[in-house]
Design goal:
The protein is α/β, with parallel strands linked by helices. It contains 7 helices and 12 strands. It has a domain of 173 residues: 3-Layer(aba) Sandwich (Rossmann fold), CATH 3.40.50.150.
Length: 256
């Protein structure tokens, strides 16, 4: 299962992610973050994952970067691997993260525009592209908050702008294991992160299937073309905000 690799974990009192990123940039290249899932799954994630270069990006992330245009907000930027790649391409990009440690790492690595903020409370001038990679949409935590976020995002994006995000349909995976919580959307999971014996508070994370995302996007005024789907169910979605002039085009929610 793809793990949540963005800023929500760092919202816990212990800045697990930020401490791990700072240790890495200070010379500890062998660090691991242990991910404890509510279904009992435990995975060790190398901190080096956050410091990949463009040649190490999977195809899905490479395609997302190719689709970026205009001014970009990289939400849940972590150590800034995507921000730096866009900056090298000449795009004006602002990296956003809630983790104090991540913000320090972003600045030390040379990201020129960095903002420390909760993505769900961010206030800024509208941009052309919101980038939310490494399952960045997971920060909304639960399906009922997805609509709230998509409506809020309309204030962050210019007419004609876009959100680029990736996620994973894990419903079948959890059903097969009998591990999802009764009465909630099966893409909602709970995590705790551990680093050097320090444990984060529990946080919710959302994996949303593409059909459900399409339905919520249409409800909130976003057009949704599926862009890329991996064999394992990982997918990239491009949500487009209609231009301010002229009637909105129909939004199809057929299976991508």
């Amino acid at each position: 299962m793809t793990q949540p690799l963005a800023d929500s974990c760092a919202a816990a009192n212990a800045d697990i992610l930020g401490v791990a990123l700072l240790d890495f940039i200070n010379g500890d290249s062998s660090g691991l973050i242990t991910s404890h899932c509510s279904d009992g799954e435990v995975l060790n994630l190398p901190v080096s994952l956050f410091f990949r270069g463009p040649e190490e990006f999977p195809r899905l992330e490479q395609q997302a970067l190719e689709l970026c245009r205009g001014t970009v907000l990289d939400l849940g930027a972590g150590a800034g691997c995507h921000s730096l790649a866009l900056q090298d391409r000449g795009l004006p990009v602002t990296a956003v993260d809630i983790s104090p440690g991540a913000v320090e790492v972003l600045r030390r690595r040379g990201v020129r525009s960095v903002v420390r903020a909760d993505v769900l409370e961010l206030v800024c001038d509208p941009v052309d592209t919101l980038l939310m990679l490494m399952n960045g949409i997971g920060i909304v935590g639960a399906l009922p908050q997805l609509e709230t976020f998509l409506l809020r995002a309309r204030q962050l994006v210019r007419p004609g702008g876009q959100i680029l995000l990736d996620s994973l349909d894990i419903r079948g995976f959890l059903a097969a294991r009998g591990s999802h919580e009764h009465g909630i959307y099966p893409g909602e999971v709970r995590y705790r992160w551990e680093y050097h014996g320090q444990l984060s508070e529990e946080f919710r994370w959302l994996y949303v299937d593409p059909i459900t995302l399409c339905q919520y996007a249409a409800r909130c005024g976003w057009r949704y073309p599926a862009v890329f789907i991996e064999e394992n169910g990982d997918y990239l979605a491009q949500l487009q905000l209609p231009p301010s002039s002229g009637p909105d085009e129909p939004n199809s929610c057929a299976a991508p």
